[in-house]
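Supplementary Methods. Inverse-folding protocol.

Structures were first reduced to a discrete structure-token string of length 825. This string, shown here, constituted the complete conditioning input.
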């Protein structure tokens, strides 16, 4: 039988008989409970099977196992973010409590396996469970565990992430000084990993490196913003470009502009996604080769653009969740070929011990959407030239092919370790790309190599010729990139540094269509708003106030954000070419009534871990018991806290404070990681400004379980809990005895809060009569909705405080786009 005839027969078979077995199989699995009793789709696609059997991506004897694994739902995997020093505590909590509760648990007659750590992920920070998403959401026995996952995901302490998706960032081997570009970053689970790696040393508030996370899809950029915000890093910038022509950025180095070359690039390209069919079951119905044929060109252009912007010695990881060699090895082979030795595949076989994979293919052929196979570009008739491109084939020159070491690519097959399918290749750059040969070698450690424009490479990529970006194709003087030897352009000469304003540029050179983000305005160091802040918080002289910015050029500055020195440099030198969606973390917010206080700005929890090392006053060290009281009560009177706490605060004037818990290694039963919280010292009481999920996180770490109840949260004090009523009333200071003695919050009318919303009247959520504490803005407390304009505040019933929805403000996506359970790729 001819190939075409065989193909047609396969198509017919698929339509007629193919589904029957699968339906039966589906019923059987439903009975087993994994799909919660819902009818399944038919998990059959004969073409898919035919295609991959021909390409031999799976050893013949493993074929049934491979197909069997694809038909099973994908188990959930979770990653504890190693970013915060709290990771160890979470791990402890998971192992000693939540995983213990899963022992001997049965759901729908099926035993739940206790999660196991992924052997190749460092420090037991990633875990594999046999719980599908659906089961986690629906099973009452798993409610507590599910809530834990949701809440800890929101506060950035846990990420539900596919196991295979954790691999690329690990293989990038990120160091805190690396300048990193994540080319196709949304929704951002890998970006989060990269950010965590930058902050591996938590004692450094501003690592030298940064992550620029890009996505072409503007709406998905806001998913990225949400993801990045959970990690409160001043070293992240979200930008919105087509990665295949992402502009070359520049930095001011010693007063001269130099092109920015990245030390690490993640190129996690858009793909046909057939490795995700365990999760995205639609792939079963829709799979054809057309998607991969159409994506190949874009994938190659993105990878080429990445390679151009990689520093010499830098690493780039190319990955897809497709098993298809057209999107995988063909892209890598073509990139290597056009690099003429500038790029090399890295042997990473020893880098993730315990991970199983198949070596990359060196031979493959190309199938058209209607089933015609071609082993050689020469065989492809002209009529097919728009669909099939020469770069889709392996190189014909065997010596060249061998030198590419395509076997160094990794293809992860679902049945090997119960994951999705995935492809990864790690490249290192030895020299400039051939068309950037004038790229000078300059400076020392990182991103210091600049390339010069050059005509585009001639290789066709999926029907299009790879064009260097607009910036690259301009004369050097126009793009501000000048050879070191020939002299450098003055950083100030291009007008992009207009009084520290870098925002939606009135660009003549490059039109950023539809771009309407608020500007990023750096605050001049002599701005009169600084002295009161510096005095009030006794900021250390090393505090880099030049890195503070606002998002408005007019009116009062309400929120102050902070970026690292390096990102400031990037922002100031690229406003004309960059669509920045978001950057910076909020460190200070103006109080509505703050003008009457000694300082108009209160601390913001989002940026407290960055700001705290520079704050030298208004710090109150609190015990674990006090932390519980502060986080579970709306605005506890001073007398509800320990005398030690009160004594530290009693001489302080009203206003924002830092509440700090220091672990005591001599008391191993207590929380062993530090906590820094923003608070308010009122007239008679304290208040904390900690968002809901972060509160719940701290409470859980201290053994206080919070159970979800649609209407109201319930606190359950577990055995380990120290919250047994808080410190004794006898600790109350004599001078407080005359204070009103009602329930928390009853003294509200006596004491204005930071935003002047004192009083027991209407709260931010509009619920009449709810008592608001003396320290007004809603704090996301356990028994009410957040009010006021404290953006970081959120209540337990899911409302997020005030300004989050504000148009193009950097907070506008907070809580918005994120999927319910924080599940990302
Ligand atoms: C596989 S997903 C990336 C997943 C992401 N790296 C993560 O770990 O969460 C591919 C992303 O590429 C984006 N994309 C598609 N075409 C693009 C292009 N030309 N430039 C930049 N991003 C693109 C899509 O919007 C999508 O968000």
């Amino acid at each position: 039988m001819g190939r075409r005839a065989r193909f047609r027969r396969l198509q017919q078979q698929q339509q007629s008989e193919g589904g029957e077995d699968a339906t039966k199989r589906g019923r059987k699995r439903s009975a087993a409970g994994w799909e919660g009793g819902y009818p399944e789709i038919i998990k059959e696609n004969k073409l898919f099977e035919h295609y991959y059997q021909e390409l031999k991506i799976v050893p013949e004897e493993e074929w049934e196992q491979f197909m069997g694994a694809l038909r099973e739902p994908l188990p959930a995997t979770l990653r504890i973010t190693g970013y915060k020093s709290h990771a160890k505590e979470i791990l402890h909590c998971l192992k000693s409590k939540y995983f213990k509760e899963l022992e001997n648990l049965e759901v729908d007659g099926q035993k739940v396996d206790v999660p196991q750590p992924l052997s190749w992920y460092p420090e037991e920070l990633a875990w594999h469970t046999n719980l599908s998403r659906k089961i986690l959401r629906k099973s009452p026995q798993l409610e507590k565990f599910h809530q834990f996952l949701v809440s800890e995901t929101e506060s950035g302490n846990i990420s539900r992430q596919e196991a295979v998706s954790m691999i690329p960032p690990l293989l990038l081997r990120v160091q805190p000084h690396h300048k990193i570009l994540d080319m196709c970053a949304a929704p951002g689970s890998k970006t989060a990993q990269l950010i965590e790696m930058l902050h591996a040393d938590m004692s450094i508030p501003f690592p030298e490196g940064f992550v620029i996370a890009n996505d072409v899809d503007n709406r998905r950029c806001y998913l990225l913003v949400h993801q990045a915000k959970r990690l409160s890093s001043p070293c992240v910038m979200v930008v919105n470009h087509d990665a295949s022509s992402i502009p070359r950025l520049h930095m001011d180095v010693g007063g001269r502009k130099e092109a920015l070359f990245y030390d690490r690039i993640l190129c996690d390209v858009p793909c046909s996604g057939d490795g995700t069919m365990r999760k995205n079951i639609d792939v079963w119905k829709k799979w054809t080769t057309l998607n991969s044929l159409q994506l190949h060109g874009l994938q190659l252009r993105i990878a080429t653009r990445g390679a151009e912007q990689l520093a010499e010695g830098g690493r780039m990881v190319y990955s897809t969740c497709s098993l298809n060699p057209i999107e995988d090895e063909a892209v890598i082979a073509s990139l290597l070929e056009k690099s003429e030795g500038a790029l090399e595949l890295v042997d990473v076989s020893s880098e993730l011990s315990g991970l199983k994979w198949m070596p990359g293919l060196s031979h493959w052929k190309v199938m058209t959407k209607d089933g015609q196979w071609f082993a050689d570009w020469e065989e492809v008739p002209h009529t097919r030239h728009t669909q099939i491109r020469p770069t889709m084939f392996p190189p014909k020159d065997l010596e060249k092919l061998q030198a590419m070491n395509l076997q160094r690519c990794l293809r992860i097959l679902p049945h090997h370790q119960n994951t999705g399918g995935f492809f990864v290749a790690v490249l290192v750059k030895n020299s400039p790309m051939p068309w950037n040969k004038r790229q000078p070698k300059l400076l020392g450690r990182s991103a210091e190599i600049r390339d010069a424009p050059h005509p585009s490479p001639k290789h066709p990529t999926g029907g299009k010729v790879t064009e260097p970006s607009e910036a690259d194709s301009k004369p050097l003087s126009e793009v501000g990139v000048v050879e070191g030897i020939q002299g450098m352009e003055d950083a100030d000469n291009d007008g992009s540094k207009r009084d520290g304003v870098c925002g939606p540029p009135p660009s003549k050179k490059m039109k950023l269509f539809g771009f309407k983000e608020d500007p990023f305005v750096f605050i001049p160091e002599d701005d009169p708003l600084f002295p009161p802040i510096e005095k009030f918080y006794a900021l250390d002289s090393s505090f880099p106030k030049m890195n503070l910015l606002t998002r408005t050029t007019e009116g009062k500055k309400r929120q102050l954000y902070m970026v690292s020195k390096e990102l400031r440099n990037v922002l100031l030198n690229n406003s004309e070419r960059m669509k920045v969606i978001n950057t910076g973390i909020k460190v200070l917010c103006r109080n509505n009534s703050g003008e009457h206080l000694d300082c108009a700005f209160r601390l913001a929890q989002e940026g407290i871990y960055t700001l705290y090392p520079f704050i030298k006053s208004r710090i109150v060290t609190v015990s674990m018991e006090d932390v519980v009281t502060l986080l579970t009560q709306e605005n506890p009177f001073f007398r509800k806290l320990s005398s030690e706490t009160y004594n530290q605060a009693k001489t302080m004037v009203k206003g924002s404070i830092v509440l700090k818990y220091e672990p005591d290694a001599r008391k191993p039963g207590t929380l062993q990681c530090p906590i820094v919280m923003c608070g308010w010292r009122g007239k008679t009481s304290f208040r904390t400004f900690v968002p809901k999920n972060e509160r719940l996180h701290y409470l859980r770490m201290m053994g206080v379980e919070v159970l979800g109840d649609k209407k109201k949260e319930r606190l359950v004090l577990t055995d380990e809990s120290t919250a047994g009523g808080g410190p004794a009333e006898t600790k109350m200071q004599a001078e407080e005895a005359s204070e009103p003695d009602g329930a928390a919050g009853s003294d509200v009318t006596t004491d204005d809060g930071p935003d002047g919303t004192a009083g027991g009247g209407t709260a931010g959520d509009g619920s009449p009569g709810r008592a608001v504490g003396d320290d007004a803005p809603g704090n996301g407390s356990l028994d009410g909705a957040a009010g006021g304009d404290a953006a970081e505040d959120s209540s337990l019933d899911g409302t997020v405080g005030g300004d989050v929805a504000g148009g193009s403000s950097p907070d506008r996506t907070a809580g918005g786009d994120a999927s319910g359970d924080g599940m990302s790729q």
